[in-house]
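User: For my dataset I need records formatted as: sequence, then structure tokens, nothing else. Please produce one.
Assistant:
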Amino acid sequence: MAQESLHSICRWTFNPGKGGFVPGDMRPEWGGDFGTPEMVKLVADKIKPRLPDHIMLGIEMHYDAEVDDDNAAAVADALVDTGLYLAMITPGAHSHFGYGGIASLDPNERKAAEELGTRTVDLAYGTLKKAWHPDKAPACVIWNGSFGYDIATVGIRQMYQNLKESVAGLCKYEQKKGGQLYIAFEPKPNEGHPAMLIPTVASALLFWYKLEKEFGVSTKNKGVNKEFGHSEMIGLDHVYDSVEELDNDMMVHMHLNSQGYNDGIILGGPGKYDIDHGARINGMNVAIAGLIQQAGYARWKGHDMQTRAYDNAEQGIDRVVRSVISWEACEKAAAELDTEALMAALAKRETAKAEDMMRAAVVSAQNSFDKMYK
């Protein structure tokens, strides 16, 4: 019997349409009165039955765009009633603050952004607490979409200092609430600004060590939301990123997605915008699956993905199912891979044989996907 595997589905995936250069009304049933409680029920009714029994599902959401003080009770009830859990909550600061958020040089914006963060923590420990998994507390992810800049000045250093002080304050506030949340940075090189504070995994790791040294913030339950696509966007190696995160014991949440360039089928990749395809079956993902298995990672694996601009609701649901099963297939292939033989081949410089083994693992993963999907 397969070990329980925790996957989380993102509220923002279920939108009526992106708009802009593509239709904004492709899925009208996901607009209007379709709120977060309705999304939770949809996941329970339409997605959960299509997944293997060993998969446990959680939900990810932004405060205050997708969950707030007004609908939190209904969201918590929906989670409990359906047997789903709160896997991740994040302050939706990017929706409100365009001049740096908690790193802003505008003191009024910075104060308002800080208050949004503490209210996020309050809600997680308050109305939403009953929807926590009994053993796997949710993550509070700090996405850096609001703390960026577009002018090269000496003010950038002060923004970084502001960021350190604000995050340290949030961590100390959360500690007084219980210290159970896993607080994670989600590095991103750009969007929603041309340049961002905390652009890479290495930046995030260094940031936490600086907070420990300068402000006495413990690194326990602190780290990185392992976001595949953001590394891919600027051509970084998300396999090595995983090594750094795991080596520092700072992979506390995951976002399994892809910009698409690494499977030879879907276009995207370095220099492209944040496409957010679901998880793909490829050699890199098999390698990462093997790394997290070796490290004993057993927390939430989120699917930060966007329904394609041309998908109807049924197709959008199907893409989420495919993403979850694709990752499970990669994990199965990684578990079955003869790692000892692989390492022996690498030690002998027989890299062609190592390539053959990884290619066979990808084929195995695809076969596993086909069986689980049916």
